[in-house]
Design brief:
437 residues, alpha/beta, 6-stranded parallel beta sheet, 18 helices, 14 strands, globular, binds uridine-5'-diphosphate-glucuronic acid
């Protein structure tokens, strides 16, 4: 089948390559010429495990271009552009709207337009009306991939969700997308067909639930801090209840990235527009708890070191999660910047995130007090304190004795509760976790 994918960011680029892996002929389209140039040369423009190999393996069925007219040959068109956060918290629909407008002249009778972007409920209905006069049908097929596992999640998803229009159009849209995903469906992947509003809500509800789970355990960490309890043991204990489950109960400096924070804010903004803001008022608490986590590290450092001005602090981690170079709304980078603003000399180390962080640090005017490196060992030389802000495996497996010898001080703040506390204490460190006294 001939497929176009509009938008080649983390979601679209991985989706395009994955569709080629399923045997389809795919053109990826994006307005960013640098990104397209890189993808066309089978070089991933961002760090995502397995993605380079997937691009290379399927290069004969994959092309990338900035020219929207290339979509004319395709019969299925995925819309995978970003919906960033607007100043008022709502989702910015500029890219979705311009993708659909750009696509309209190239749509033919019988084509299928498949929305994958995370959008405010009500969007698919509106876009469906726009697409209808071309004879094409629109459906919504939200994506649930996690960065760091994007290829695996696209090719082996937990479920497929189809939001379709009522009647024959819905049936034909379902049949076409079933054909596109036939290999995935054949593996027994659950496939749920529903109306537009439900499909749009499934996506934001899932991310809101995950965000709530993280903020719940971080709220418990706040209580643990003043009671002497250990939040990791608490999470283990409640997690054995299969109704609760242990996953996404890791307390620490909270969630970041290009999805969870902006999706809960966008959901709240949309509920308020719909006159049901009260239903989601709890998500504001989820957001507040999460934002508080980022200041907790500076509080702990101040408790231990006093005034941070003049101190040298090394922060391990810049990207918002391990196995990613994504620094969007990264708690790690936010913390490094706030420590630099407090007068500390900060060295941030991250195997991948250090590269994209450079430009942002220059923009924030902090380059004199905040530097980045890929080498986390070099970074610790002479440091008064070490903060672990992203749980890369290479940090977790580090030898505490060696690190202790390189540092001037002996304080480690484990912002992700990912280190073996006893091991670091045995190496002479003062260990402070998040909610585990
Ligand atoms: C998230 C969802 O998990 C995906 O299902 C969804 O498809 C995606 O957003 C999206 O909307 O596109 P992602 O942003 O890649 O995926 O990251 P997560 O793995 O959800 O992690 C988000 C943040 O939560 C990270 O900063 C992570 O460190 C933090 N986190 C995660 C915790 O603080 N504690 C946990 O227990 C788990």
């Amino acid at each position: 089948m001939k497929i176009s994918v509009i938008g080649c960011g983390y979601l679209g680029a991985v989706h395009a390559a994955s569709m080629a892996e399923l045997g389809h002929e795919v053109v990826g389209i994006d307005v960013n010429p640098h990104r397209i140039d890189s993808l066309q040369r089978s070089i991933a423009p961002f760090h995502e495990p397995g993605f380079d190999a997937l691009l290379l393996k399927n290069s004969s069925r994959l092309t990338f271009t900035t020219d929207m007219s290339a979509s004319a040959d395709a019969t299925v068109h995925f819309v995978a552009v970003g919906t960033p956060q607007s100043a008022d918290g709502s989702a910015d629909m500029t890219y979705v709207n311009s993708a659909i407008e750009g696509l309209l002249p190239y749509l033919s009778d019988g084509d299928l337009v498949v929305g994958k972007s995370t959008v405010p409920v009500g969007t698919a209905e509106r876009l469906s009306e726009q697409v209808q006069p071309t004879g094409a049908v629109l459906m919504w097929n939200p994506e649930f991939l996690r960065e760091g596992f994007a290829v695996e999640d696209t090719l082996s998803p937990d479920r497929l969700v189809y939001g379709v229009p009522a009647g024959d159009d819905g049936d034909s849209a379902t049949a076409i997308l079933d054909e596109v995903y036939s290999e995935i469906i054949a593996k027994g992947t659950p496939r749920l067909v529903m109306n537009f509003a439900t499909a749009e809500l499934v996506k934001v509800a899932a991310n809101s639930f995950l965000a709530t789970k993280i903020s719940f355990i971080n709220a418990m960490a706040e209580i643990a801090d003043v009671t002497g309890a250990n939040v990791t043991q608490l999470a283990d204990a409640i997690g054995y209840d299969t109704r609760i489950g242990r996953r996404f109960l890791n307390a620490g400096i909270g969630f970041g990235g290009g999805c969870l924070p902006k999706d809960i804010r966008g959901f709240v903004a949309r509920a308020e527009e719909l006159g049901v803001g009260d239903a989601l008022s709890f998500l504001k608490d989820v957001d507040d708890i999460n934002v508080r986590r980022r200041t907790r590290v500076a509080e702990i450092l101040t408790e231990e070191l006093g005034n941070l001005a003049g101190k040298t602090i090394v922060v391990w981690g810049i990207s918002f999660k391990p196995d990613s170079d994504d620094i969007r709304d990264s708690p790690a980078l936010d913390i490094a910047e706030s420590l630099a603003r407090a007068g500390a000399t900060v060295v941030s180390a991250d195997p991948e995130g250090w590269k994209p962080a450079q430009a942002r640090i220059e923009q924030s005017g902090l380059s004199d007090s905040l530097t980045t490196t890929a080498d986390h060992r070099v970074a610790v030389a002479g440091a008064d304190a070490l903060v672990v802000a992203t749980e890369w495996k290479v940090f977790q497996g580090e030898n505490a004795d060696t690190i202790g010898e390189l540092m001037s001080g002996n304080l480690v703040v484990d912002g992700r509760n990912c280190l073996d506390a006893e091991f670091w204490k045995a190496a002479g460190f003062r260990y402070r976790g998040m909610g585990r006294a």
